[in-house]
Design a protein that fits this description.
Belongs to the glycogen phosphorylase family. It catalyses: [(1->4)-alpha-D-glucosyl](n) + phosphate = [(1->4)-alpha-D-glucosyl](n-1) + alpha-D-glucose 1-phosphate. This protein is 48% helix and 14% strand. Strands 1, 2, 5, 6, 9, 10, 11, 12, 16 and 17 form a 10-stranded mixed β-sheet that branches. A 6-stranded parallel β-sheet has the order 20-19-18-21-22-23, with helices on both faces. Strands 13-15-14 form a 3-stranded antiparallel β-sheet. The protein is α/β, with parallel strands linked by helices and 812 residues long. Helix 14 crosses helix 15 and helix 30 runs antiparallel to helix 31.
């Protein structure tokens, strides 16, 4: 599924200078002497966008009729900033820096002008961005499809320790990276009713229309000679955004209703769905972008003069989690109702085109939609889903299990409720309607087969496969850690950027004192840079010589930031009790957002911030312990934290993290991992060796046994004095004397519920952290382990992941 790279020569330095100055003058109405840093950012971005657009045509995006085109459907694409990455990929970084310097401008100041694209939240979106990069780098024709959110998720700020959400207005004045394609606008329907046509067929008559306007972002390979695109849909409601009659009658709000409704649909990522309106909006968002994308795919297919019956031969749909699962009935609707196919032909094409990536084992994260809600918004799709389920249960399921009602109820797409409603299990629909289903780490994929979908695995041998996640080395090593990249270039050459297995050449250098010193020096400079950022953002001074202990990921109970917090409190008590002991200085760094409606997660953030305030101002510690929670965690912030991290916290409850990619990024940059045998930690441990990772905690089987016998967190609280003292300090107001009960909810949850068994793993975690401290006090040993982590993680490149997808999922 790959092409030979184009031989087109990219822009030379002189042409680059001419084009850059042309954009300054023509688009921005300024000159090099008068241009601000923001002007230079826009001009540079436009120049690189033009290079990519030219190369997009050379890449033959739509022309090759034999190539199977990958269509990656995802609610999130966490792209971060694009300029620095693009300059590096196109080999123009030094050229741009030199040119700007000639005008007295620093490239670093220009790069800081860019806002992160607010198109995602966490691992799901960042994985999608890495995969788009690697699809281009593997020369696989692909389009990423998503939503062009106006505000994204939210900008996180802290007020007196509380998380507050603010709109993230990232594209208020447009983005130079986006190209609008109004001529390729598509129309879709919503709501309405079903009626019989003159041939006796059911026909959907929507009562509301949406228009999807595509905005394209180019995605170049390293070297820029192959380019794919990310197509993001912006919603409009109705042909006319404003009703002038109502406006002229003074009914201003009503006159602008279409404008407001359209902006709402592509406005905010993951709207809070605790209200009926929120549930409606989430489903409409999912349908909106998948329906627009499928119409776009069919338009391209027809434009190429290809028969509809060959659609699956030329396009592979990858459903990134269940958010785009509505694509399955929508594709059936398009093929039957608009293209005139019979059921069997449409179903064969749908099953051949669709592929589903499962990202979670958590029951609450497996999407379910009320049939009454879906039927009200998408009445035809409910009919199709009912027919898919009927054919499946009376065909394959009946042949496999006969009248075994227990299994039939489990594999059915519909879950019957006591109130008479039904829930549509989107995961079941995705498995039944897809050609391949993949997990994202070896452990996770095994649990998908054994625990989540064992019946489907028995019914469809070979359908459920594993593709372990990966990260792009261009962004997550070359771009974010230039000091380490230069060190690697001098010692093992430059090919590692496109062949990460080249890092194995570092293994003998782990025995070289000179190389270890150079590696440590790079890390120290990165830590100094992060220390300056912490000073600026948190008003806390930290010591770059301390161990930087980092936990950066979405705030969720199963990721167990609360376990980290209990260890911090125990360290604090230990340092106060034994002030003359040889304590390893530590800086704990957190970065995470909690969903607006996730009350306990927000209480954990509050607890971390309140405890940090006390610890950071306790002069008795003599700067040996600091705790900082950097606000508004995002890609550009991660790019500064990851190269400075000494210890990577991957401490989720075994069996609950699908894979993780932060563990890969941190390890690739030389951080040592402390973690459970969960997700990709298992494969990371196998790669780096038991001596170069700090594994602790109960295994998947031990967690299951503990759940089965009845987990009692209070037992651990009572029997462990260190743990009891830490929790008591949350209960008694030690960290917020003016409001003694403020942190009680976190403590009470740990003592009486502790759904993800933090207390059961606490002592093992504390012992592992003691080993961390002992090892860090032996610099030669620490840096040897750090180098071996970088050397042995080449297999966690997203280039390898995409090669696996091409072979195991999209291939013949």
């Amino acid at each position: 599924m790959s092409k030979k790279k184009s031989e087109t020569t990219l822009m030379d330095n002189n042409s680059f200078t001419v084009e850059l100055e042309k954009h300054l003058r023509r688009e921005l109405g300024t000159s090099p002497k008068r241009a601000t840093a923001h002007d230079w950012w826009q001009a540079l971005s436009l120049t690189l966008r033009d290079i990519n657009l030219d190369q997009l045509q050379q890449s033959g995006l739509d022309e090759n009729q034999e190539e199977r085109h990958v269509c990656y459907l995802s609610m999130e694409f966490l792209m971060g900033r694009l300029l620095g990455d693009a300059l590096m990929n196109l080999g123009l970084y030094e050229t741009a820096a030199t040119l700007l310097q000639s005008y007295g401008v620093r490239l670093s100041d220009v790069l800081d002008q860019e806002r992160d694209m607010s198109l995602g939240n966490g691992g799901l979106g960042r994985l999608a961005a890495c995969f788009m990069d690697s699809l281009a780098n593997r020369n696989i024709p692909a389009t990423g499809y998503g939503i062009n959110y106006r505000y994204g998720l939210f900008r996180q700020v802290f007020v007196d320790g509380y998380q507050k959400e603010k709109p993230d207005v990232w594209r208020e004045f447009g983005s130079p990276w986006e190209t609008c394609r109004p001529s390729e606008t598509v129309e879709i329907g919503l709501f309405g009713h079903m009626e019989m046509d003159h041939d006796g067929n059911n026909r959907w008559v929507p009562s509301k229309k949406l228009f999807g306007v595509p905005w394209d972002i180019t995605i170049p390979s390293f070297g820029g000679q192959y380019v794919n695109r990310l197509r993001l849909w912006e919603s409009l409601v109705g042909a006319y955004p404003i009703d002038l009659d109502k406006y002229n009658q003074g009914e201003y709000l009503e006159a602008c209703r279409n404008l407001v409704d359209g902006d709402t649909i592509s406005g905010v990522l993951y709207p809070e769905d605790s209200t009926p309106q929120g549930k409606d909006l989430r489903l409409i968002q999912q349908y909106f972008f998948t329906a627009c994308s499928l119409k776009d795919i069919i338009r391209q297919h027809k434009q190429r003069g290809l028969p509809m019956g060959s659609l699956a031969k030329h396009y592979a749909l990858q459903l990134n989690d269940t958010h785009p699962a509505i694509a399955i009935p929508e594709l059936m609707r398009l093929l039957m109702d608009e293209e005139g196919m019979v059921w069997n032909q449409a179903w064969a094409i749908t099953q051949e085109m669709c592929h589903y990536t499962n990202h979670t084992l958590l029951p609450e994260a497996l999407e379910k939609w009320s049939a009454s809600l879906l039927g009200r918004i998408l009445p035809r799709h409910l009919q199709i889903i009912e027919m898919i389920n009927y054919v499946f249960l009376n065909g394959e399921a009946k042949e496999q299990w006969g009248d075994n009602l227990e299994i039939i109820q489990k594999v059915s797409i519909f879950e019957e409720l006591d109130n008479g409603d039904r829930m549509i299990r989107m995961a079941n629909l995705s498995v039944i309607g897809s050609r391949r289903v993949n997990g994202v780490a070896a452990l996770h994929s095994g649990l998908v087969k054994a625990n989540l979908f064992p019946e489907f695995d028995a019914l469809y041998p070979g359908k459920l496969v594993n593709v372990t996640n990966g990260v792009t080395p261009r962004r997550w090593l070359a771009h974010c850690n230039p000091g380490l990249a230069r060190l690697l270039d001098r010692n093992i050459g430059t090919d590692w950027r496109t062949d990460l297995d080249q890092l194995e050449k570092l293994t003998p250098l782990a025995e070289s004192p000179d190389f270890l010193d150079a590696f440590a020096n790079v890390r120290f400079k990165n830590k100094e840079r992060l220390a300056r950022l912490i000073e600026k953002e948190c008003k806390v001074t930290v010591n770059p010589n301390a161990l930087f202990d980092v936990q950066i990921k979405r705030l969720h109970e199963y990721k167990r930031q609360q376990l980290n917090l209990l260890h911090i409190i125990s360290l604090y008590h230990e340092m106060l009790d034994n002030p003359d002991a040889d304590h390893t200085p530590r800086v704990f760094v957190f970065g995470a957002k909690a969903a607006p409606g996730y009350v306990l997660a927000k209480q954990i953030i509050l607890a971390i911030n309140k405890i940090a305030q006390v610890i950071n101002n306790d002069r008795r510690l003599d700067d040996r312990l600091k705790v900082v929670f950097l606000p508004d965690y995002r890609v550009s912030l991660a790019e500064q934290i990851i190269p400075a991290a000494d210890l990577s916290e991957q401490i989720s409850t075994a069996g609950f993290e699908a894979s993780g990619t932060g563990n890969m990024k941190l390890g690739l940059n030389g951080a040592l991992t402390i973690g459970t045998l969960d997700g990709a930690n298992v494969e990371i441990a196998e790669a780096v060796g038991d001596d170069n990772i700090f594994i602790f905690g109960k295994t998947v089987d031990e967690i299951a046994a503990l759940q089965q016998q009845g987990y009692n967190p209070y037992h651990y609280y009572e029997s462990n004095p260190v743990l009891k003292r830490a929790i008591d300090s949350l209960m008694n107001g030690s960290f917020c004397q003016h409001k003694p009960d403020l942190l009680k909810p976190v403590a009470e949850d740990l003592m009486h519920r502790d759904q993800f068994m933090a207390l059961a793993d606490f002592e093992s975690y504390r012992e592992a952290q003691q080993k961390v401290s002992e090892t860090f006090r032996k610099p030669r040993l620490w840096w040897r382990k750090a180098v071996l982590n970088t050397a042995r993680l080449g297999g966690f490149s997203s280039d390898r992941s995409i090669a696996d997808y091409a072979e195991k999922v999209w291939g013949e």
